[in-house]
Amino acid sequence: MILHNAWEHGGCFLIRGVAYVSVSVAVTEQVDRPLLDLDRENGIFRFDREQCEAVGQSLHETYRRASPFPHIMLENFLDIKVLRQVDAEFPAREKGAFDDSYSRLKTGYALEKIRSAYITDLLNALNSAQFLVFLERLTGIKGLISDAHYTGGGLHEMARGGHLSIHADFNIHPRTLLMRRLNLILFLNDDWLPDYGGNLELWDRNMRACRQSVAPLIGRAVIFSTDTTSYHGHPEPLTCPPDRFRRSIALYYYTVPVKPPKAIRHTTLFKPRANSNDAQAPMIDRLMEGFRRMVDQVIRH
Q1: What's the pLDDT band for 104 if we cut at 50, 70, 90?
Q2: How far apart are CA 274 and CA 271, in angstroms?
Q3: Strand 71-74 vs strand 25-30: parallel, antiparallel, or unpaired?
Q4: How many other C-beta atoms are found inside a 10 Å radius of the C-beta of residue 169?
C-alpha cells in the first residue's frame, strides 16, 4: 500500500458576506488502491484488523492536529465499485423528513428503510470491531461503540434546493445514553460538479469563519470528533439538476460517559454564520446554551 499526503494551502474569501478561511490541511490520498481493503470472498464484507490498526495509527497525528477541530478527509477511502453499487441500490426516494429553516429537503434512511442486503452488509462492516480499531487508532479515542440503532445515521439524501444549517450534533444517545464522539461521512456522488454545491463546511468555535470546505465526491470520507463546538453543515442550497441528489453514508460512534458527567445533555445546536441571514435559535435555546457553556467551564476547571 502506497500513501502520500497532498497539502491544500490557505486563503481567505467571502461568499454572500460570509468569511471563508482555507488553512493548510493534510489530505491523505491513496495511490492505485483504496485506503482500506474490503474482503468479500465469503459473501460478507470484512476489514483486515492489522491493516486497520496500521493505517489508523499512521494518520493519528494528521487527525489530532487538524483545525478547527480534530478531523481528517480521506480520498479513495473504500473501493469505488462498492460505493457505486451502494448508490445503485439506494432506497427509493421518500419525501424529506426535515423541512424547516435549519434543514430542508433532507431524507435519512435508517436500517429499517434499507432493503438492500449489500448496503446492510457494508454498514455492518463499518460498525465492526475491525473498523472500530481503525477509528480508535486514528483518533486516539478508546472504547468506541457503534450504534446498532442508527439514530440519525444510515443513508442520507439531499434534493435540489436542500441545505443543512451549521450545527453541533446531539451529544447523548437518546436510547443508550452513550456519549457521541465521532462522525463518519462517506460520500457517494459520482460526477459531482462544483456548480452543484453541497460542500461540507467545518466552522470555528466562534462561528466567524469556515475553516474547511469539502466537496462531496464519491469515495471521499470525512471523520471528525463531535462536541458542543464542532460546528459543521452544508448551509447553501444545492443547485444540482432536479434528477441528482447529494448522497452519503453517515455513521456515528460513541463511548460510555465518564463519571461524573463532563457535559450537559443537549439536542442538535444550530448556529447562524457571522454576517449571514441564517435562522437564529429561539431565545430560550440561546439562554440554555449559555448556561450549558458556563457549567461546562466549571466542570472542566
Answers
A1: confident
A2: 9
A3: parallel
A4: 18
